[in-house]
Design brief:
46% of the residues lie in helices and 4% in strands. With 137 residues, it is mainly α.
Length: 137
């Protein structure tokens, strides 16, 4: 769907808007491609207030568990801590598909060790591995 290459020291959670901006899903009957997913399944690293707010503004359902420290802070504040964000545990179980996809990518030695110097070459290798994995399925 979308591949964004960042520096190794950069946290993945800050590029979520950029990844969502690159998504284009073609429609079966023609017309403009979809640019907004129904839901985003992510791990706790993407559960920041900024990411949740961005998804809420775009009308995308966030299926992201809360971090333990955020839960503790909310409970410590009592009634001023607000309600916990909605979380669909049944939908979150499907996140294993994403994790298995990363495992397929790591089968490629050059991708796992990042031998490529240029980001564009590395991104091309990731896209090729995704295409081959998709064709294999």
């Amino acid at each position: 769907m979308a591949v964004v290459v960042t520096g190794g020291q950069r946290h993945d959670g800050v590029v979520l808007p950029q990844v969502l901006a690159d998504i284009r899903v073609p429609r079966a009957g023609g017309g403009r491609p979809r640019t907004r997913p129904d839901a985003v399944l992510a791990d706790r690293a993407y559960g920041s207030r900024g990411n949740r707010e961005y998804l809420r503004l775009r009308g995308i359902r966030a299926v992201i568990p809360e971090k333990k420290d955020q839960i503790a802070t909310r409970k410590r504040r009592g009634s001023k801590g607000g309600r916990p964000p909605a979380f669909d545990a049944a939908a979150y179980r499907n996140r294993n598909v994403v994790e298995r996809s990363f495992a397929y990518v790591k089968q490629w030695r050059g991708l796992a060790t990042r031998y490529d110097k240029l980001a564009i070459v590395y991104r091309a290798a990731v896209v090729i591995s995704a295409i081959l994995t998709w064709l294999r399925q």
